[in-house]
Amino acid sequence: MAIIAGVALALMGRPLVGAGIALVGLADIGTTWWFRSLSRPDPVLDAAIDDAMKVRKTDPAAADEMLDRAFMEAAGREEQELAQLQAKATVDKRGSAASRPSAQQDQAS
Predict the structure, then answer these.
(1) CA-CA distance, 86 to 97, in Å (whole number)?
(2) What ranges in the chain are assigned the alpha helix state H?
(3) CB 17 within 8 A of CB 8
(4) Alpha carbons 76 and 37: distance in angstroms, whole number
């Protein structure tokens, strides 16, 4: 979309602005392509979201309920993982280093 808007602006007499917006669009396409093979953090949640989106077409209320349940389960898994990392951190200094980014991220949000 940004590429099209940039070209349109360039054709309307704003070549620098148009080129800048088109470059942003190209950068977006490039980063999307570059990171296309990264796995998602929670494949179980991704599968539940996909299932809910399929159900949403026929029963939106059931899909919302499925999403609520999936997010609650994902939060529980994350809390359990953090608790395991914190328990490991009391015994192992490397476990402490592994739990630090997760704990800092939770405090930031």
Answers:
(1) 10
(2) 2-11, 15-34, 43-56, 60-91, 93-108
(3) no
(4) 27
Rounded CA gap, 27 and 105, in Å? 27
Torsion sign over Cα 42, 46, 49, 55: negative
Integer-rounded Cα radius of gyration of the chain: 22
Token pair belonging to 39? 């796995």
The tens-digit pLDDT sequence of the chain (109 residues) is: 788 888 888 888 888 888 898 899 999 898 888 887 776 678 888 899 999 999 999 999 999 999 999 999 999 998 998 898 888 888 876 655 655 555 555 555 5
Question: In Å, what is the CA distance from 62 to each residue of 32, 34, 58, 68, 72?
Answer: 32, 36, 9, 10, 15
Residue 42 contacts by C-beta under 8 Å, 6 or more apart in sequence? Answer: 74, 77, 78
Q: How far apart are CA 72 and CA 54, in angstroms?
A: 20
